[in-house]
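Dear support,

Our group has been running a series of protein-ligand predictions, and this particular one with magnesium ion is the one our PI (initials K.S.) wants archived with full inputs and outputs. We had some confusion internally about which version of the output was final, so please treat the block below as the authoritative record. The input we submitted was:
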Amino acid sequence: RAKSAGGNRFELADPEADARAITRHGLTTALPAALERGEFFIEYQPLVHLGDGSVRGAEALVRWLHPQHGIIGPDRFIPLAEHTGLIVPLGRWVLEESVRQARTWTARHKDAGPLRVNVNLSPMQLNHPNLVSDTVEILERVGLEPGALCLEVTESALIGADDDLLKPLRRLAEMGVDIALDDFGTGYSNLANLRRLPVSILKLDRSFTQGMQHFPADPVDLKIVEGIVALAHSLDLAVTVEGVETGAQADQLRELGCDTAQGWYYARPGPPDQLHELALADATS
Ligand code: C2E
Ligand code: MG
Ligand code: MG
Ligand code: MG
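Confirmed final output from the archive:
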């Protein structure tokens, strides 16, 4: 990366970068065997309805339990998997696991209404010709209704996307799969462009929520979020907020009209049974 970014001027002078590069190389070459050996696992972070506080589902977040290095977060290995193409089989594994999990939750909570699962998609998966057929096949084989699945795509992955790239997402949306625009507000998307995208949910990036950590929050930050929510709702998009860490943030975001929230205030990413327990608590309260 250093080379492609700016020549090799600093490479020799920076032994730390060297160590990082070795680690990166080591991790990259270990990825395929890790998938085969089942070293990946998924944590689920609850998605909560801001209006009534009920749990509506969870986002699937993949982790790697490395035999030497312990638990490694996705920010460290997803880019490597994306680079080598391993993200395609890894992403398919995450999708199938998550769809199975959503099916289990829903079967255990018939009264609670369907519990949905959100799965992150990498740009390379978006471009893969089997995205639609794989997704349909998994949903049918597992027996989950498409409406219980939401695929998260980052804003930057769709910047400048032409119609060919959008076609598979459109097909999935027509089937009833929700498409969410992840990390919204960090890219450079033209707001008017939103109308063209087959998305039904905007996930407002954590940086907006962070701006509300202090009380009173910066009035300009509030105006920006208020404006985004108004625009989203006028386009029939629901708004999910990431990174809610305090009750004060949750109150503020509810007042601003956001629909769903996710963050440490509600729950950290955890094992699938966490969602089961939270949904059970909902049903009995
Ligand atoms: P993301 O999709 O934006 O996921 C939200 C990230 O914010 C997660 O980090 C989550 O643990 C973290 N988070 C949630 N609530 C809070 C909070 O209240 N405060 C703070 N400070 N952080 C919070 P995580 O699990 O490290 O995942 C990082 C990114 O890795 C994800 O960002 C997503 O882009 C990617 N990722 C995770 N799983 C997958 C996957 O299966 N496939 C692909 N392609 N990408 C994945
Ligand atoms: Mg996400
Ligand atoms: Mg996100
Ligand atoms: Mg984010």
